[in-house]
Specification:
There is one protein chain. The chain is an alpha/beta fold. The chain has a domain at 2-170 and 203-229 and 293-307: 3-Layer(aba) Sandwich (Rossmann fold), CATH 3.40.50. It contains 11 helices and 12 strands. The protein has helices spanning 11-22, 57-61, 81-102, 138-156, 179-188, 205-218, 234-245, 257-268, 281-287, 296-302, 309-322, and strands at residues 2-6, 26-31, 46-49, 66-69, 106-110, 161-166, 168-170, 194-195, 199-204, 224-227, 230-233, 252-253. Strands 3-2-1-4-5-6-10 form a 7-stranded parallel β-sheet, with helices on both faces. A 3-stranded mixed β-sheet has the order 7-9-11. Helix 1 links the parallel strand 1 and strand 2 (26-31). Helix 1 packs across helix 6 (205-218), helix 3 (81-102) runs parallel beside helix 4 (138-156) and helix 7 (234-245) crosses helix 11 (309-322). The radius of gyration is 20 Å and the shape is globular. It starts with a strand and ends in a 13-residue tail after the last helix. 45% of the residues are buried. One of its GO terms (cellular component) is cytoplasm. This is NAD-dependent epimerase/dehydratase family protein. Residues 4-228 form the NAD-dependent epimerase/dehydratase domain. One of its GO terms (molecular function) is aldehyde dehydrogenase (NAD+) activity.
Amino acid sequence: MRAFVTGGTGFVGANLIRLLLQQGYQVKALVRANSCLVNLKDLDIEIVRGDLNQEDLALQMKGCQVLFHVAAQYSLWKKDRDTLYLNNVLGTRNILNCARQAGIERTIYTSSVAAMGVRQDSLPADETYQSPVSKLIGDYKKSKYYGEQEAVKAIKTGQDIVIVNPSTPIGAWDIKPTPTGEIIVRFLQRKMPFYIDTGLNLIDVEDVAWGHVLALKQGKTGDRYILGNQNLTFAQLLGKLEQITGLPAPQKTIPGWIPYGVAWLEENVLTKLGKQPTIALDGVRMSRQKMFYDASKAVVQLGLPQSNIDDALFKAVKYFQTKGISNEGSRKQYL
């Protein structure tokens, strides 16, 4: 089977392509003209240069049976608002239209738990939950919501699409890195004296890749599946990193109003003076919520793996160290 993959240079996409190759698929990957191809180096795939809003993508998809639309723009900065909607909403609309024209038999659309939002009572949300779009924090989450709605519209017109909603993947090939990868990097570099009392649902990125393949094989058209695993408070996450690396975890929380004030000042004042902000206001607002999710549906209906989170964190730490991240204070020699 021949698969067309968008977002293959990114974290989830790079792991998905490797799994597809292992499973015997032929892969054609769409990459932007200026994309870094490090994550695709030496892979036996066909690379096509272009972007999600090209009208001729149907020609590039010819001969492929399935589409994995993984690509998305991620940013929490206000200045990137227009780009978020251009890629995550209009780009999704265009590529799904092109998939229909190309005769793609089934599409796996990578949404995000960000599109669902979080429950106000901090209990884990499942696929039946949907926060009002007005309650979604920031344009990234809203753009993912509206992007998912493009998939829903296409399903209603007869396209065979399954939606997957990854939570917070961790592991290797986190090249940018992602916000969670950045947490690990800052921990290793001893740049985290305090932490905010928040919570995340973590999952091994390799399990996320398997979730895509299992959704292709067993997912129900029109359904969405949370690809997640373990809910952890930030303190629990830092405790696991301490056990893995031997580095002491920060013990003190910081009141939310402090980073909020700094972020507000940077985005609303310093940027007007030509300064580069360091903390995104939307990121601070998100951290006030515990982003917990229930992936039972994907586990039961798809057989989504639930690999040990400690092992996934270990792989992430090892990956970042291999890439030159300093953790000279580590006492664990195997790292």
